[in-house]
Design goal:
This protein is mainly alpha-helical. The chain is 54% helix and 0% strand. Helix 2 packs antiparallel against helix 5. The two termini are 17 Å apart.
Protein backbone atom coordinates (compact mmCIF):
# COMPACT_ATOMS: atom_id res chain seq x y z
CA UNK A 1 0.00 0.00 0.00
CA UNK A 2 1.39 3.41 -0.96
CA UNK A 3 1.78 6.20 1.54
CA UNK A 4 -0.78 8.98 1.24
CA UNK A 5 0.14 12.09 -0.70
CA UNK A 6 2.14 14.11 1.87
CA UNK A 7 0.38 17.30 0.74
CA UNK A 8 -2.68 15.99 2.59
CA UNK A 9 -1.39 17.91 5.62
CA UNK A 10 -1.01 21.27 3.84
CA UNK A 11 -4.43 22.52 4.99
CA UNK A 12 -3.99 21.33 8.58
CA UNK A 13 -3.28 23.95 11.21
CA UNK A 14 0.18 23.57 12.70
CA UNK A 15 -1.47 23.22 16.13
CA UNK A 16 -3.48 20.22 14.84
CA UNK A 17 -0.31 18.55 13.60
CA UNK A 18 1.44 19.20 16.90
CA UNK A 19 -1.48 17.56 18.72
CA UNK A 20 -1.13 14.41 16.58
CA UNK A 21 2.29 13.47 17.89
CA UNK A 22 4.88 14.85 20.28
CA UNK A 23 7.51 14.21 17.62
CA UNK A 24 6.00 16.73 15.18
CA UNK A 25 7.48 19.64 17.14
CA UNK A 26 10.99 18.20 16.90
CA UNK A 27 10.51 17.58 13.18
CA UNK A 28 9.39 21.16 12.56
CA UNK A 29 12.25 22.53 14.65
CA UNK A 30 14.74 20.48 12.62
CA UNK A 31 13.31 22.05 9.48
CA UNK A 32 13.90 25.56 10.79
CA UNK A 33 10.58 26.48 12.36
CA UNK A 34 12.44 27.86 15.38
CA UNK A 35 9.68 30.16 16.72
CA UNK A 36 7.77 26.99 17.61
CA UNK A 37 10.48 26.22 20.17
CA UNK A 38 9.19 29.06 22.32
CA UNK A 39 6.01 27.91 24.12
CA UNK A 40 4.44 31.38 24.08
CA UNK A 41 5.08 31.84 20.36
CA UNK A 42 3.95 28.28 19.65
CA UNK A 43 0.70 28.97 21.50
CA UNK A 44 0.15 32.19 19.56
CA UNK A 45 1.28 31.08 16.10
CA UNK A 46 0.46 27.38 15.70
CA UNK A 47 -3.34 27.75 15.74
CA UNK A 48 -3.27 30.56 13.18
CA UNK A 49 -1.34 29.05 10.25
CA UNK A 50 -1.63 25.96 8.10
CA UNK A 51 1.35 23.84 7.22
CA UNK A 52 1.37 25.26 3.68
CA UNK A 53 1.35 28.82 5.02
CA UNK A 54 4.16 28.00 7.45
CA UNK A 55 6.24 26.51 4.64
CA UNK A 56 5.78 29.67 2.58
CA UNK A 57 6.54 31.95 5.56
CA UNK A 58 9.67 29.96 6.34
CA UNK A 59 10.74 30.20 2.70
CA UNK A 60 11.55 26.52 2.31
CA UNK A 61 12.75 25.46 -1.11
CA UNK A 62 10.45 23.07 -2.99
CA UNK A 63 12.88 20.24 -2.23
CA UNK A 64 13.03 21.06 1.50
CA UNK A 65 9.23 21.40 1.66
CA UNK A 66 8.81 18.03 -0.06
CA UNK A 67 11.24 16.44 2.40
CA UNK A 68 9.36 17.92 5.35
CA UNK A 69 6.06 16.64 3.96
CA UNK A 70 7.50 13.14 3.43
CA UNK A 71 8.90 13.02 6.96
CA UNK A 72 5.62 14.29 8.40
CA UNK A 73 3.59 11.72 6.45
CA UNK A 74 5.94 8.98 7.58
CA UNK A 75 5.79 10.16 11.19
CA UNK A 76 2.01 10.41 11.33
CA UNK A 77 1.47 7.42 9.04
CA UNK A 78 -2.17 8.29 8.42
CA UNK A 79 -4.22 7.18 5.45
CA UNK A 80 -6.18 9.89 3.60
CA UNK A 81 -9.49 8.33 4.64
CA UNK A 82 -8.59 8.91 8.30
CA UNK A 83 -8.33 12.70 7.92
Amino acid sequence: MALPDPRIYDDARVSELLAESGEVLQLLLRHGFTPLGNPALRSALAPTVTLAQAIRLRGLSPEAAAQLRRELASLLDLEPACR
